[in-house]
Amino acid sequence: MRIAVAYKWAPNPQDALVGSDGSVDWRHAKAGVSEYDPVAIALGRSLADASGAELVGLSVGGPDVASPMAKKSALARGLDRAVVVADASLQGLGATETALLLAALVEKIGDVDVVLTGDSSIDEGSRMVPTVLGGALGWPALTDVRSVSGTAGDLSVERNHRGGSQVLRLTGPAVLAAAVDAVVPGVPGVRDILAAGKKPVEEVALTALVRRELGSSVERVRIAGPEVRDRKRRMIEGSDAAVAAHEIVAALRADGVI
Amino acid sequence: MSATYILVAGDARIGNLVATAVGTSITAVVVGDRGVAEAVAASGVEKVVWLGDPGATPLEAFAGQVAALTAAARPDLVLAPSRPADLVLAGAVAARLSAPVYTMASAVRVADGAVEIDRSVFGGIARETLRIHGPVVVIGDGGEVGTDGGAPIEEVTGAPATTISVIETLPPEHAPVDLSKARRIVSTGRGLKDQGDLSITARLGEALDAELACSRPLAEGVGWFRRDRYVGVTGQKVTPDLYVAVGISGQLQHVVGARGARVIVVINSDEKCPYFGEADYCVVGDLYELVPALTAALTEAN
Q1: Which letter does DSSP use for residue B218 in this model?
Q2: 0.90 surpassed by complex ipTM
Q3: pLDDT for B302
Q4: Superfamily of segment(s) B3-155
């Protein structure tokens, strides 16, 4: 069995600087393996260990994706190897384009039985890449997956379902998006990071993929800063808690919210 | 006239999406039981295409068929509510049409053969307006069940993927919480040192007749709260009259989820905490003293 994990090398928007005109400056935002992707890698590692499968990381994006730092960070989390497509033209791709490229990559490496993904990426956060990927491959996609066990052609998947849970059986390939808290991934240790340096990483040229282009043209006509309500920002000194409490109660009364 | 397809998986609450697409010819593609198809037919859509009773088949198994019949109609706009199975249908449609897909849209306009979308990007740090020529898929808040008209229901024979089947379904252990309708919310963050200390915010919640919520680490990290009680970009979006944030520093991921609150009170020991920048009342001090004092003052005032 071959298990693929699609991961993203992405910065945290929290660390980006946003101009009042909406321009986003990413220079101070350090990239990393996107926050929920380690959950998918950990799920994949358990499944691979239990079934003797190979665990392959897949990533598409800008040139950073192939940097030594990015490769090591991903591999140290438990992948056996990685296959990446890094190209300047792929910086900041949307969900559909990312998923269509990942589908092409899955088809290129071949023999993949299941693709795991994180719940959503830290920067785009659309939650759509796994579902578009499933569509592009013609495989069923399931989200909010808590656990997965079994072997190729006979997988048991538990997922969150309408506040409860559901166990499903899969007899063919599938794309599974891990629930954010499916497992708590460990932090890679020195040994993991050293081992990661020796694991193989294959760089696939964009031109080597059979790529489907977006069927629509997208034009950005306006950018703006976030829509932030004007707040009072009244400071209340709290060293005397009782005094502060009465001031808050009076203010909330005046605002008509209590 | 432009054509809109609305994708529905087992839940007829699509009122907001119908409102978004007013002025276009709206077809709803419904996966789910007949009751769902009938409720959707009475929601202001022109036509319902229903894939028949799914029985025990998971709704996601119909994604391929939904994609094929939606793509064949070449709609200008495809809308789907932001619910798990609906996202799977929407993903399959986007793949089939090679259409871009957008979430976090605040407005969608269809005009002159193009679709314009206002949306927030990168977790809410900025906004953009996009103009798209060609098909586009937009995910939005489904809203409530609509009540308008009785559209015809065309039943097509369902042909779900056969490699996926349900073995067991376990109901929720607790009734799910919907914080989106709460009028007052007391929300707790990592400033609280110990799970046992949650009693102090719980008492404040009682005094305010408020729902209890939290920031993400308290639900996904330490598990002090259930996941349906965390407010944030990936959690609940809330619009109460009053939002009291206790020991929450103001990570963007959280702040965005409560931006719709009318009045925000932030209690934090760090006078430089980022949340003060988006608060009405910035209370600087020890939450272990301030929260009980506030509870007492409210109880006294009542």
Answers
A1: I
A2: yes
A3: 77
A4: HUPs (3.40.50.620)
